[in-house]
Design a protein that fits this description.
Layout (H helix, E strand, L loop, with lengths): L1 H6 L11 H18 L1 H9 L17 E2 H4 L11 E4 L9 E4 L1 H17 L8 E8 L8 H9 L5 E11 L2 E4 L1 H11 L6 E5 L1 H14 L10 E4 L13 H12 L6 E7 L2 E6 L6 E2 L5 E5 L12 E7 L10 E11 L12 E7 L2 H11 L9
Parallel strand pairs: 1-14, 4-5, 4-7, 7-8, 8-9
Antiparallel strand pairs: 2-3, 5-6, 9-10, 11-15, 12-13, 13-14, 14-15
Amino acid sequence: MKLRRKLFSSKDPYDCTKQQLFLDACKENFKHLITHCDDYKKISEGLGIKGASDIKGVEDIPIIPTMLMKQHDFRSGRYMVMATSSGTSGKMSHVRFEFGALMAALRMSIKVTRYHGIMSFQPCRYIVMGYKPHRSNKTAVAKTAYLTTFLAPAISRKFILKHTADGYKPDFEGIVNALRKYEKGKAPVRFMGFPSYTFFLFRLLEERGLSFKLPKNSKIMLGGGWKQFYQEAADKETFYKLAKKTLNIDEENITEFFGAVEHPILYTDCSHHHFHVPVYSNIVIRDPDTLEPLGMEQTGLVNLISPLCKATPILSIMTDDLGILHDGSTCPCGVKSPYLEIVGRVAPEDIKTCAAGAADILQGVKV
């Protein structure tokens, strides 16, 4: 995968001049997938794509809905690490990574976090608003949250979700006690994890009339989405205000990540809280009824594309997210690549219906 290595070695994580290299790396990945995964080959041929020469643009790459990933275990080569989705719907995607994919992901993570000023050599205390590692938990969100604690030297790690005989349970009291201790120290505190539990902590502190002045350079890093708490999701303005009120952390020190186990690319919001598309990926917004590509500023299904992995056919993934792709040049942050806005979700049955309406994507694949 020489082209993948070249793409993921790009110095600028938001270089807009690498479109041809990206497409060539995708074709390289596609050639591997159709020769190492019979089910992916069936899907490709069902969509009229029999070889890399049929791919004229990224929008031509055969797509696999995340819904199908949760129902069918795709494999396309040997692997070193496997990650699963959180499975809030009862079913999980299984994504396998070979050594080359892990190295590419590492290069990507270093470049993106350096660009956004998240990587630091200053020791800090981590409060992970997510799962404490446990042998029974193989979800990608748990692994990612833990790996994020290596972006700066960790003095300590405190987790809100602890494994018990009855499953994971939140320990808000333990976090409050930790804040009382950390407020008196000099080391910055870094929150990392689910926005839901972080927001619930803000509300708990507000209800109790508690506020803390955490040390300088403390940050809040959010990832993993609201999951089953989507009905309680707070707007960003409310979230930022409560962060300042309860922890004395300013908006500029709050960073949000976006990604999925089926598309393990690191999207990090800019200073204006926009998710610009990095050089390692591409996004196509598609019409929910026809799956035809839509232009900028139009709402449709979010199709995520990246040649990162060859052990699992996740080259082009159709999510159940509805999104809009905006012109990056309109963002004051200076990054010119387009940025993604997620505006909602559609029901899983609609994904299956629209995919089947455009082509019999499930033909020959047992689910």
